[in-house]
Amino acid sequence: MHPLTRYYTHQAGGGGGGSGGVGPIYALPPYVQRGHGFGDYLGPLFRSIKPLLFSGLRFASKALRREALLTRGKILSDIADNTQMGYKDIITKHVQNSFQNLRS
């Protein structure tokens, strides 16, 4: 018999040991973790929450954009109308008002 064929049949469990049958089959001990642990339970939960989370983020980004545009308009109109106040004071005042509007 060719040496590679003999090696293969020995590895496959078909020879060498005198029994001629298939060798021992590998089995995991019962304490070895299978699956992903908590991920098996939490994965479907996060997959169901994910669309709700992203729709909430989409709504928040729209509100943020809208507030930024309104604030920009207010800042520009105050700068054009009020020449005595500094730019920094006008911007600070309107940005603080915007943050208060977003919180409520």
Keywords:
104 residues, mainly alpha, 3 helices, 66% helix, 0% strand, rod-shaped
Number of helical segments? 3
Please report which band the strand proportion falls in: under 5%, 5-15%, 15-25%, 25-35%, 35-45% or over 45%.
under 5%
Mean pLDDT over the full residue set? 79
Separation, N- and C-terminal Cα atoms: 85 Å
Order of helices and strands: HHH
Please estimate the helix content. Answer: 55-70%
Low-confidence runs: none
- Multimeric state of these chains? single chain
Radius of gyration: 35 Å
**Content-based structural category:** mainly alpha
Shape by Cα distribution? rod-shaped
For the sheet with most strands, the description reads: none
Strand segment tally: 0
Could you characterize what this model shows?
The longest helix has about 45 residues, at about 40-80. This protein has 3 helices and no strands. The model has no long low-confidence stretch (mean pLDDT about 80). It is mostly helical and about 100 residues long. α2 packs antiparallel against α3 (about 85-104).
